[in-house]
Each structure stands twice: as structure tokens, then as C-alpha cells.
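PROTOCOL LOG
Step 1. Enter all chains and additional molecules of the complex.
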Amino acid sequence: MKRPARKPRPRAAEPEARAKAQKPRGRTNAYFTHHLWVLVSSLGQLWRTPFSTLMTAMVIGIALALPAGLYVLLNNVQQLSSGWEDSAQVSLFIERDVAEKRILALADRLRNWEGVAEVRYISREQALAEFRELSGFGDALDSLAENPLPAVLVLRPTPAQAEPAAMGRLLERLRQLDAVDQAQLDMEWVRRLNGIIEVGKRGALLLGVLLAMAILLVVGNTIRLTIFARREEIVITKLIGATNAFIRRPFLYTGFWYGLMGALIAWLLVVGFLILLSGPVTQLSFLYDSQFRLAGLDLVTSLSLLLSGITLGLAGSWLAVGRHLQAIEPE
Amino acid sequence: MIQFDNVSKRYPGGHEALSGVSFHIQPGEMAFLTGHSGAGKSSLLKLIALIERSSRGQVFVDGQNLSRLKNRHIPHLRRKIGIVFQSHNLLFDRTVFDNVALPLIIAGYHQSEVGRRVRAALDKVGLLNRDKAYPITLSGGEQQRVGIARAVVNRPPLLLADEPTGNLDPALSREIMGLFEEFNRVGVSVLIATHDHDLISRLDHRLLTLSGGRLVRDGRTTELAASA
Ligand SMILES: Nc1ncnc2c1ncn2[C@@H]1O[C@H](COP(=O)(O)OP(=O)(O)OP(=O)(O)O)[C@@H](O)[C@H]1O
Ligand SMILES: [Mg+2]
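Step 2. Run joint prediction.
Step 3. Record the structure below.
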């Protein structure tokens, strides 16, 4: 690929312009004025066909909004579940025949373990009482001759320990203890959910790559049609001495506008989508007694969305221009 | 200004449009190029503007060897050449002013300079009051004059014209030729391809005659009247 349009230096500096190098006043200034003019006029050109412009921009917008929306949503779920992960705890179910004194000694020993923040003892009686209260199976329990519940040590890991690999090792060690019947990580499902979210994010990224390719094709094809529609004009300007950079410029700016408009539409779609969801989500989290609120699009995500739109618009038009402009030569 | 050294042009189909053409046009000279249809007039002009490249021999324009000129330098060559076509090649979605301004915009002239030069060029072809018109609203002769204004607005040292009076009436054709002579008087080299013998026989300039791709005569337009 060729490099983007270079700033033409005053022609006198170029060898082929040595003859009669007229040096008009304010070349550099004129150069920027020209860029600005092309930028505005390419927007004007799009404005003249508002319907087809909007259609193209919408396609780009939807293609951008899909992965972006999915990503934001997954981020939200992850944030929510990371709140739960802090409350991860391990329940150690103690063998039924272990005496209370030994359990308390074990609890003391565990408190000194690295990675253990807190150990709480729930005796068999307490467990039964709790269960009676919560389950409503009180009468059924009464008919049992013996308390069926084991004593439990509830162990809260330090935040550092909450990381999955460390947690796995801790669980393994706990399971090896004689007195322990079972060691169960209560928040196992949070980890599973996290795993699923990671897969989902990867999927969103993949979807993003596919849709980015689609955007390239859409912009490329649109620009290709524009090039063919303006074939005559291209030939004439080439005959008058226009450089490829000069001819390329309006098409690149057109791609830029498509990308920008698409990104803005995508932004509006995602924001609208989040607003629609935020009501029900707030209600739901209220039911769960949670402070969770749906996070909107932050500045960084918004800017990346804008930037990807513009980049894809430019790249798409660049592809079309590179392929089709060279072929149009005066005959 | 223009020098051909034993130049041949063979098109991809195998047809040799020009064979062994040599001539030299001095800076400030005005010359006509004539010959039957298919003699190679347009091909010769295309070699000068590098719309086509020669198959053999060498073409020099303003001292530059065109066979050595890289494609990316072609635009700068073309800015030194004003080209007038038979079909006027105007942009129909732009005003007369914008059409004429195009070469200046391409060359990166400043806004104020553009306005001044465009008005000067339009004044010269007598269309100063039509600058806001669209080409479609102009007559054929007026469109041709817009094309000429565009070719000279950049004050190129060389002016090429391919059948510039193609379908104009005799009076208009004389007027257009008068314009070219005027530019030539201020030092512009001019080369015009035409088969309008009636028109050029009244003038006194150099005349190159092509036949079947060969340069068969290099004389004066006045000889045409004598031979007719
Ligand atoms: N692009 C091309 N490809 C193949 N052959 C071509 C091409 N252009 C011209 N020719 C051939 O070259 C020969 C010279 O063509 P050219 O257009 O130079 O003639 P001309 O003198 O300008 O004729 P006219 O007076 O009809 O315009 C013709 O036989 C033509 O068929
Ligand atoms: Mg011809």
C-alpha cells in the first residue's frame, strides 16, 4: 500500500519543476484550506443523497453497535459477579464423630494459615437451628432421632487468596485434613460464570473482527460505486495534472464521514439500549438487595468506538481507492 | 519545447499508429498538425502529455526526456501543458468558474490568486459574465472557450489542442484560432491537431503533416492554399 497523501512541498524544491517554478503566495496555507474544503465538500456531497448516506451509516452503526453493546453488557455482568467473588467462602463440613474441642483447635490452627482471613464455627446445633428457621421443615426434623447436620467451619479467604489458582490449592489442602469430610467452595458458580463471560468477551471480539471486515466491505463497495460514478471527473482532473493524492482525497474523506456517522449511530444505539435496560436492572438489583447499577459507556469506550468507526471508514475507502483509482486513466 | 526523435507508437493490438516520427518545435512556436483520419494526430498529442508512452524513440518536452519520467511525476508534466479537447471535457456539475479554477486548485494556489487568475482567463475568452453559469447552459462554442480558459489559466508554457474547432461554425472556428494566436504572441508554444484545411490555410504557421503514422511533410500552412 502507498503511503497517505504527502504534503506537497513548494514545487521549486522538486527537480522536475525547475522550469518556470512559479511560487504562488501562501502555498501551505492554501494546502490546509484545500483539505478543509474537501472535508466539507465531501460531507456536502453525502448530504445531497441523505437517504443512501443514512443507509450506509446505519449499516456501519449496527455492525459497530453489536460487538460494542455485547462487550459493555458482559463488562457489567463481570463487574456484578466480581462483587460476589469478594464474598467467596469455603465451607468445611466436619466429620460427624469429631469432638467439638478438636474442631475448635482446628479452627484456631486454620486462622494461622496463610490466605485465611477469618474462620467461623457453626456447631451442629446451630446448623440445625438455622436450617429449621430457613427451610420451614421444622416438623420433619423433629421426627428425626438424631441431628443429621454436620458441624461446619466457614472460612473466608484473604482477597489475595480469592484468585482461582490459589483458591484451588487451598481447597486441596483443606480436603486433606483428617477431620474434614468435605470442603466446598460456595462461590464456585461465580467462577464458572466468570469463565463464561471471558468466553463471551472473546466471542464479542471475534464478532467484532468479523463485523469490522463487513464494514470494510460495505464502505469499500460504497466508495467503489462513487468512484465509478465520478469516473469522468477523475479522468479530467488527471489530465489537468492532479496527483493521485489529490484525486484520492475526497474519497478518503467520504470514508471518514461514513465511519464517523456510523460510530455516532453505534454510540446512540448502545446508549439507548443501556437506558432501556437500566430501569429493569435497577429494579432487579433492588429485589436482590444489591447496589448494582448498570454502567453506561465510559469515555474510553466511547472514544474507542469513535476511533474504530473512523479507522474502518478510512481503511475501507483506502482499499477501494487503491484498487480502482489507479485503473482510471485518460485514454 | 517539443522534440521527437524517431518516435514510434504501437498500440497493444499491434497497430502502429506512429512510425519513426522526428521533429522539433521551438519554445514560442506555433504549429499545426494535420493528416487523414487515423493518421496518428491524436496519438502524437497523447505522447506529449504522457497519456500514452512511446514504444520506440524519445520524446522531450521542455527539455525533459519523457521515457525517463516516472509515473508519479506525470501530474507535474501535465501542469506545464494546457490541453484543449474536441469534446470539451468540462465538469457539468460545477460552474464555469469552478471548472476554470480546477487547475489552480490542483496546483495549490491561494484563494485570492485563484479568483484573480480565473477572471483574467475568462475575460480573455470573453466569458467573464458567465462565470456562475453551468456548462450545460452554454452553447458549444462557449463551452469550447471555457475549455480554453481552463487550459491557459495556469499560464502553461505549452498549449495542445486536438480538433478544437471540430463542430463549430467557420466564424467561431476563426475566433478560437485567433485566441490561440493571441496566446502564442505572449510566448506560449502551441500545437494544434486539425483537419480543417480551409481554416488554417488563411494563417501563416508551421504545418506538420502525418500520413499512416509517418511524418510526410514539414512546411507552412500557406503552402496548403498554394497546393489547393
Ligand atoms: N487506444 C488505442 N488502441 C489501439 N489502437 C488505437 C488506439 N488509439 C488509436 N489507435 C489507432 O491508431 C491509429 C491512429 O489513431 P489517432 O487517434 O492517433 O488518429 P487521428 O489522426 O487522431 O485520427 P482522427 O482524425 O480520426 O482523430 C488509428 O488507426 C487508431 O485506430
Ligand atoms: Mg484524433
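Step 4. Note key features.
Helices of chain B lie at 41-48, 74-78, 96-107, 111-124, 140-152, 170-185, 197-201, 222-227.
Chain B has a mean pLDDT of 91.
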